[in-house]
Amino acid sequence: MAKKKRLFCEISPTTYAISLQKEILKRHIKNMLGKERFAKTIQSDRLPVVVSAQSNNMIKCGPGIDMKLQENKADNIRIACGKINGLVVLPGESFSFWRQVGKTSRKNGFAEGRVLVNGKLVAGLGGGLCNLANTINLLVLHSPLTITELHHHSDALAPDPNGIRIPYSAGTSVNYNFLDYRFRNDTSQPVQLCTWCEDDDLRLRRRSDETMSDGLPPRTAVLHAELRTTVEYPNTYRLVEEDHHFRKEENGKYYRVSKIYRETISRATGEVVNRELSWKNHSEVMFDESLIPPTLIRDM
Length: 300
Known about the structure:
Layout: H1 13-33, E1 41-42, E2 49-57, H2 67-84, E3 87-89, E4 94-96, H3 97-101, E5 112-117, E6 120-125, H4 129-141, E7 146-149, E8 182-184, E9 191-199, E10 221-229, E11 235-248, E12 254-266, E13 272-284, E14 297-298
Parallel strand pairs: 11-14
Antiparallel strand pairs: 1-3, 2-10, 3-9, 4-8, 5-6, 7-8, 9-10, 11-12, 12-13
């Protein structure tokens, strides 16, 4: 079998950096020439109606997980949440993750977290913000808003907590200012994004160079996000995952495989009025393969 030719960005870290800067420049030009109206109003008062809400623990624990990068991820998300919290997206306006968050530089307070580059998990500035983008994506999927830009990466970055699988628990990829996450408000009423973080104050705040010699569990840091509006929408939304399993493919790697559907439910009748395939999942497993439940492994 002929050897697959590598892309220019895959040759070395230098060629990857060159390719990334090229894409960032293309994005800046596209933004300048485009006619998209981006949301920019931050409002401290929250709109009265919660359309959807999400919460998740930002710090993951397990074999082979670098806790320093996990701590940094939580801090990166906290910085980004502060730039998004309270943003009002008016009818006809769009939300852009990177226009709101800005550049993930040390000058802006960001630290090295875990990022996915060319299919490998490595340390990188601003690492962990995919977690926040994915949480926002979950809010939008449970609303009538229109997703205009979405990039997927592995939906199998870590084992399912307690064996419980939540559709779209990961899988939204962002990379400044190349891969963005965007949605547009095509409804007749404003929506508001509220994003904030909470620490478990009963845990000691760890420095990246400290050990856990006192036996306390790692710091708990919880990300909260809400999508709010002024009046209830006529429909609600839910995600349904089908045929979820893992399989080992010819390249020797394991993949999570499933189909995720988005259902629209009439608030008045409770009936499903629309059902569409949201994502045909085929994600490389990025965690220890021995942690895959044997009952979920199938042959090709």
